[in-house]
Amino acid sequence: MTQELTSPSPAPQAPGTGRGPGWWRDAVIYQVYVRSFSDSDGDGIGDLRGARARLPYLKDLGVDAVWLTPFYASPQADGGYDVADYRAVDPLFGSLQDADDLIRTAHDLGLRVIVDIVPNHTSDRHPWFQDPELARQRYLFRPGKGESGELPPNDWESVFGGPAWTRTEHGDWYLHLFAPEQPDLNWDNPEVHAEFEAILRFWLDLGVDGFRVDVAHGMIKAPGLPDIGHGQQAKLIGNQVLPFFDQDGVHAIHRTWRRLLDGYGDTHGRQVVGVAEAWAPTAERLALYVRPDELHQAFNFQFLNAPWEADALRSVIDTSLAATTSVGAPTTWVLSNHDVVRHTTRLGGGLDRARAATLLMLALPGSAYLYQGEELGLPEVTDLPDEARQDPAFFRGGRTAGASATSGQDGFRDGCRVPLPWSGELPPYGFGDGGSWLPQPDDWAALTVEAQTGDPASTLELYRTALALRRRLPGLGDGEMSWAPAPDGVLAFTRAGVLCAVNTLGHEVELPPPGALLLASAPVTGKGAAAVLPGDSCSWWAI
Questions:
Q1: Which residues of the chain carry a pLDDT beneath 70?
Q2: Phi and psi based region of residue 282 (left: phi greater than 0; alpha: psi -120 to 50; beta: remaining)
Q3: In whole angstroms, what is the distance from residue 224 CA to residue 413 CA?
Q4: CB 488 within 8 Å of CB 328
Q5: pLDDT score of 167
Q6: Structural contact between residues 338 and 416, judged by C-beta atoms closer than 8 angstroms
Q7: Would you say 491 and 313 are in contact if contact means Cβ atoms under 8 Å apart?
């Protein structure tokens, strides 16, 4: 049931007002996976009060905004991405008043707040789906194939494994591109459009500064729901246009939402944004989501998936910047999130490579997203016991032969969702008083916020320094860049007054010092007239 505030008052004002230059163009935005961030009530699950209490930490870290993963009323079949009521806070995470308090506190600290919106599907406990008549109007039901309809309507597979269709007791089938508890909505129904526009306005009235649109590429399916023709379809996501993803029709929805966001912002003197979680096969197709009349940002997953090789990274950077520049949008860089293996582990070079990748990302033109815990250098937890896992994909296919422990979407996403270590020598490391919903490693004491604070060699202090420099130096953030000459295996590019040098090799490289060293992910030494860049390192130089 939709909740109401216990003490309603005018929505808080975010930092800055009016149209002006878009704050999102060079913002650094920190993703809070709410259930794993900070637990205020000792039940082992992070919540909104816990997140609110830690907001000063994020202010001191130097980020501009916070993105909160879903905290809506939900049976939690997929970590809250199965929403039963978009206007209510799940008791696991608090109340609507707690959400209001968090938004106000964030704004008082100069932080903006982005929340998730999940428009491709709802929970099967949503009132619409619980009503058989409404369900068949507002979700995608089809008759089955075969003599008695015993076969699914087509060959589509769930992203989580297994068929994307479930048969009902009435004999028909409903589509769920994710878990069976997450039925796909029918966006051909105007009532679905009207409901989500009302949901956006509800949260804008509460003061949020934008929305991260989950599965922004998925709401529209190809006419006739055609077969794909082969299996292992999840591997095709982001590699080609599929009949259930990245259909051109989604852009009409995003244009409508952009008009809503701009109109609301103009009326209330605020800049509110939409962020696309969109998997597209090319940078050019991804750029369609951030055309001037669509959303403001789109995560650059091609950069996230790029191998740690100089030529590959340069190619992705060039292609990404060219595509977004062609539509007047900033590029939005990301290395980790709650659905993929942490980049400390995924890139294959340990903490040294992860630190270098972060400095590279923060030096590139545009906006950047950080995933909670990456500033601590947290690795992926790869040895969680089966009985502790909660990722629905794990139970629908992640344990099958050929499943990869580094793919993130093959059932092993729990490894990047282990609760954060804040302080102390033993689990739960200050996360809360009642343990943690996923077990934390016994060797994380040296990785806590407490242990790293004040240590100039720590990853946390590297992030703090990098973000402070990014804020202080006008050449970083939005703007232009130019490649500079560099040896094989090394990337070098200039921004206004800054040169970034990245050694992707596993050994030292000597270069003429380009200027005064500002920051490095690993110690840079001198050898005669040369600067020695360690392997797997990145450095910023004032020029």
A1: 1-20, 395-411
A2: beta
A3: 33
A4: no
A5: 98
A6: yes
A7: yes
d(CA 179, CA 184): 10
Q: What is the pLDDT of residue 21?
A: 73
For residues 95 and 2, the answer to whether their CB atoms sit within 8 Å is no
Q: Cβ-count burial of 2 within 10 angstroms (0-12 exposed, 13-18 middle, 19+ buried)?
A: exposed
The DSSP secondary structure of 124-189, one letter per residue, reads TTSHHHHSHHHHHHHB-EEPPBSTTS-B-SS--B-TTSSBSEEE-TTS-EEE-SS-TTSPBB-TTS
Q: What does the pLDDT read at residue 409? A: 43
Domain limits for position 160: 127-175
Check whether residue 250 and residue 352 sit in a common domain: yes
Place of tokens 């006739």: 224
- Amino acid in the structure at residue 431: F
State the greatest distance between any 2 C-alpha atoms of the chain, in Å, as a whole number.
Answer: 81
146 and 196 part of one domain: no
Stretch (H or E) spanning 346: helix 343-346
**pLDDT recorded at residue 407:** 31
Q: Show which residues are catalytic.
A: 214, 277
CA neighbor of 78 nearest in space, from 186, 220, 176: 176
Q: What is the DSSP string of 58-96?
A: HHHHT-SEEEEPP-EE---TTTT-S-SEEEEE-TTT--H
| 249 within domain boundaries | yes
| 57 belongs to a structural domain | yes
Structural Rg of the chain based on CA atoms:
23
Q: Give the pLDDT score at 240.
A: 81
**pLDDT value of position 231:** 82
Same domain, 154 and 247: no
Identify the burial level of 3 via C-beta atoms within 10 angstroms of its C-beta, where 0-12 means exposed, 13-18 middle and 19 or more buried: middle
Shared domain check, 433 and 287: yes
Dist. CA 68–CA 275, nearest whole Å: 13
Residues 347, 199, single domain; the answer is yes
At 526, give phi and psi (nearest 5°). -110, 150
Encoding tokens for residue 93?
């995470």
Buried b (16+ CB within 10 A) or exposed e, 381-408: beebeeeebbbbbbbbbbeeeeeeeebb
Residue 274 DSSP SS3: strand
pLDDT score at 234: 81
Q: Cβ atoms within 10 A of the Cβ of 455, count?
A: 11
